[in-house]
Amino acid sequence: MYETHxxxxxxxxxxxxxxxxxxxxxxxxxxxxxIPTMKQRLAAPTDLVDLRHVAEMRGIKVTGKTVRIGAAxxxxxxxxxxxxxxxxxAICGLASHIGDPHVRHMGxxxxxxxNNDPAADYPSAMLALDATIVTxxxxxxxxxxxxxxxxxxxxDGELVTAIxxxxxxxxxxxxxxxxxxxxxxxxxxxARRDNGDVxxxxxxxxxxxxxxxxxxxxxxxxxWSPDALASVTVDxxxxxxxxxxxxxxxxxxxxxxxxxxxxxx
Amino acid sequence: MAKITMTVNGRQVSGQCDDRTxxxxxxxxxxxxxxxxxxxxTSQCGxxxxxxxxxxxxxxxxxxxxxxxxxxxxxxxxxxxGELHPVQAAFKANHGLQCGFCTPGMVMTAVxxxxxxxxxxxxxxxxxxxxxxxxxxxxxxNIVKAILAAAVEMGGARVAAE
Lengths: 265, 162
Ligand SMILES: Cc1cc2nc3c(=O)[nH]c(=O)nc-3n(C[C@H](O)[C@H](O)[C@H](O)COP(=O)(O)OP(=O)(O)OC[C@H]3O[C@@H](n4cnc5c(N)ncnc54)[C@H](O)[C@@H]3O)c2cc1C
Ligand code: FES
Ligand code: FES
Hints:
CATH architecture of the largest domain in chain A: 2-Layer Sandwich
Strand content of chain A: 15-25%
CATH class of the largest domain in chain A: Alpha Beta
Shape of chain A: globular
Oligomer: heterodimer
Distance between the termini of chain A: 44 Å
Shape of chain B: globular
Bound molecules: flavin-adenine dinucleotide, FE2/S2 (inorganic) cluster
Distance between the termini of chain B: 48 Å
């Protein structure tokens, strides 16, 4: 790892200021992506601004159906929140299958979505739940937030402080995990609103990162059942091919995961 | 260079290190506690697992600076009064190790797992919870057996104490 300077932020304002003052600084949340990347010398921030002690960025608040999750809330906190499980168990289930227990004790929802790894789990939930990403300066709809592989709408120095969403009537997430890394080779999050609106978001498979599958959404809006997906085609030409799975295999996985998710919701 | 202070195995310790120093190196090199191991460079093997403020973390993927002010427990901190911790005793009794390289991380993981699941542990849960710990010797069977045995032992102890 290259040399760096560590700073511990005490508030949102403090974090943004520390980052502004740094030459080429980075926010450090759980470090479960950033520190391995720095160890490989693929990242070399001059300064790290630690967010773990910013109390206003931690915790889960459920008011009726409105959910607010602080950006520095860990995967294990999301996985084990009874309050959250009462309104949206799907997101707890998703968090409980990220990496392993040690990763879940440190890794955070804000870090995961800011990183926007094409195989990460949370981006699919944000898109399917039509979540709002709250930053130190504005609110961004999930649909506008994820802009490509490891790319987001965040500006230089912009800090994700929380995410909010309205709990859906039904939702579920299913992933086919890479047997070695546990990242999604294909993960599908489905959500259905009280008014019948359906969203289907796919992670792990798209060559441009997480995406919504509109044909599946249409099919499920008229008939909320796994069978409704039988006639929908998943176009392999927009999907990733790598040593783990080629695009046609992933296309099939996407459909299988979507069916399983609808069955589980 | 910064001066870092934390509590390790109940004792307050300080040391000088670079901001980039990993917690595992601080523990091994500054404190001379070499029970915590480094088994990989990819954050996947779990040989380095310690507890930070009561929760299992990978000390190879955490900076010493992040742990400043925290309470750390390493494998050296488990045994009390010359008696093995029940999880250590169960690993011994069930042959839960061969070369022993992964063992400190396995034991620290098991203690954390039992803390969270208590008497609710079953084989499938133990195997799922071992996702972040790799052993290249045992084939895992005896590790799983040891953890289940320790969970019963510790669950029993808790009931007895109540
Ligand atoms: C062994 C292993 C297995 C894993 N398996 C999975 C898996 O199955 N599924 C999955 O989804 N992920 C997986 N991960 C990744 C894990 O979920 C990370 O925790 C997550 O991707 C990043 O979160 P973090 O809090 O650790 O962020 P960090 O590593 O601290 O930061 C990641 C990036 O986001 C930026 N950042 C962090 N917080 C903010 C913020 N609030 N605002 C703006 N920018 C911010 C940082 O500057 C950095 O660039 C795995 C990681 C490991 C090590
Ligand atoms: S040394 Fe920490 S996970 Fe391998
Ligand atoms: S006992 Fe040798 S690596 Fe586990």
